[in-house]
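Why this split exists: single-chain examples teach little about how molecules sit against one another. For that reason, every record in the complexes split bundles all components of an assembly together and asks for one structure covering all of them. Below is a record exactly as it appears in the raw files.
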Amino acid sequence: MGRKQTKSGKIRLTEVAKLAGVSPITASRFFRNPEALSESKRERVDSAVKELGYVPNLAARALASHRTEVIGVVIPSLTNNVFADVLRGIYDSSEGSRYSIQLANTRYSILQEEKLLRLFRAQKPAGLIVTGINQTAESRTILESMNCPVTQIMEIGDSPVDMMVGFSHYDASFAAISHILEQGHRRIGFLGARMDPRVQRRFEGYRDAMKAASLFDPNLVVTTSVPTTVTLGGTLFADLLARTAEIDAVFCVNDDLALGVLFECQRRQIAVPRDLAIVGFNDLEFMASAVPSLTSVRTNRYEMGRHAVTMVIDAIEGRRPREPVLNLGFQLMVRESSMPQTT
Amino acid sequence: MGRKQTKSGKIRLTEVAKLAGVSPITASRFFRNPEALSESKRERVDSAVKELGYVPNLAARALASHRTEVIGVVIPSLTNNVFADVLRGIYDSSEGSRYSIQLANTRYSILQEEKLLRLFRAQKPAGLIVTGINQTAESRTILESMNCPVTQIMEIGDSPVDMMVGFSHYDASFAAISHILEQGHRRIGFLGARMDPRVQRRFEGYRDAMKAASLFDPNLVVTTSVPTTVTLGGTLFADLLARTAEIDAVFCVNDDLALGVLFECQRRQIAVPRDLAIVGFNDLEFMASAVPSLTSVRTNRYEMGRHAVTMVIDAIEGRRPREPVLNLGFQLMVRESSMPQTT
DNA sequence: CAATCCGATGGTAGCGCTGTCAATAATTGT
DNA sequence: ACAATTATTGACAGCGCTACCATCGGATTG
């Protein structure tokens, strides 16, 4: 790391420049555009930086350049496992770049989102990653006025603000229901909690797949605006059973609910999959090791985070993608809970 | 929000001051120390700010004041549910304050931690929150040279760098084992994954409780450095069974492992709690709704996050706590998995 | 060989705010 | 009533960096 700054005090770019025998502005260019320097100067500055242990003052840089090296990330929840994976992808791929991540949590409130976006605008971020495609008109206006690359994540749709990485929740849900139907089930319940826009789209996939088979029945649908928990899965399932006794299968909008349903089945001695098939969504890790193992829809959350950051950074640096919308797809992970019963 | 800045361009503090009929420095003080202004000026500046929709330039502020309004947070994992709760507490209580959170992830590497702390030091944060008490000597030196309040979270110990919020993993674990022993179990297995310092301390609590009862046996201990998953819980349990057939109970260092053990028991037709008691750690939400419901040690993670931020902000603003170490304790949540069998 | 262009470098002038300290006004004590 | 004290306020001078434009050889061109 080179010799630490001694009593002399602050190491500024000027000091580096002096030691390297160049002008401060040349030293500055060393950081921002090293290719513009001649080989010799580049090396001289480089060794001066190391020698002095120089660390750039980000505030000064931001003030002078009217830009920051911050990528804002707006997500609706910190607790939801789904976002943990996305965040990991985001932090992993921001590491090693010059950009730092600034996280903000809307708690599923679009008004809070507006407020946060306004805050971000004031800080002039280099780029922005926002969750979903259902911003308010005002939020969209803010995003468009930001003058920086924006990536919407978690889902895809027409009319991106700028770029998008995600997958179709509708298609994923439709595929899951098709699979359940193929197993011969007719009465497929739908369990939904916190009906945010993406969950809403999963419902639409369910509804359309059921309607296509002429099997849609509103009595099969149980939803709530309450946030998801495992316990809630059991509760919703109990509600469903209370409403209609004949149930072949249950599609849960996420894996926590599915696990809750499994536990409730165990409590009620309902054999899975013999008496009831269960399918979840997201494919959290525990789904594979439950007994019976639980079918789910795998989504590429970590990759979503990684791509979002890469796309934003590329765009900041002028490398715009050919296609602004990146569909990461999904995979149906068929497991025991929805398979023809074995043994 | 007042009239937006029109074509006129940038709204600087100078513009606000002009409109309010005061000097720029007075307007500046309006933000940093409003009580120092006379009632009348304060109102005049306040309405000028609203009138113009003024937003302070944080970079300029940081450059001039040699400080930022950033609280750095260093955690070892983004995926671990435990930290999700802590983070929620942190973000919740930083909201509404002037401070913003800068998150960094060490991935359980103490070298990475050193590197991140060095990075933070360069940015002169207003305060810092770091996980655990096992920093390297170098990390401690960096922390001490930071010249800002530091709170260590997740556990407590002697010799805080500055402040601490957490609980004793040793005591919590000891209490859990004592409870299992009280149920009459003698052969209590220990299952541990990713043996980070806090998990290590849980092991020590287990070991000492077992030794006190003259029941400690190294064959009962199965650990790995692999990160925790539910599936891993099953695997470790299988390993334990392969090693010693006689097992009364299993203590898992976290709830994911405990759930994995439960699933493995279901696979092997081992009745819980009749044939085996299971106790986890953290008390994640699903523990209460598993079948049978699973005993765990509840920790106050959200509160830990909240307190950490509050303590740091208070310290930044000169309100130092009387006691630098805050013990948030734990509660043993006794459930079916460790109770005398019913029915 | 002058005209042109280009890559590499430097000088000047702030970016928008606050630390420091001095200056002024208001208040108090004796 | 007058000095001493305490609240308010302001002037000045940067903080450390980069945008912008100017400069200056040297390569390219017809």
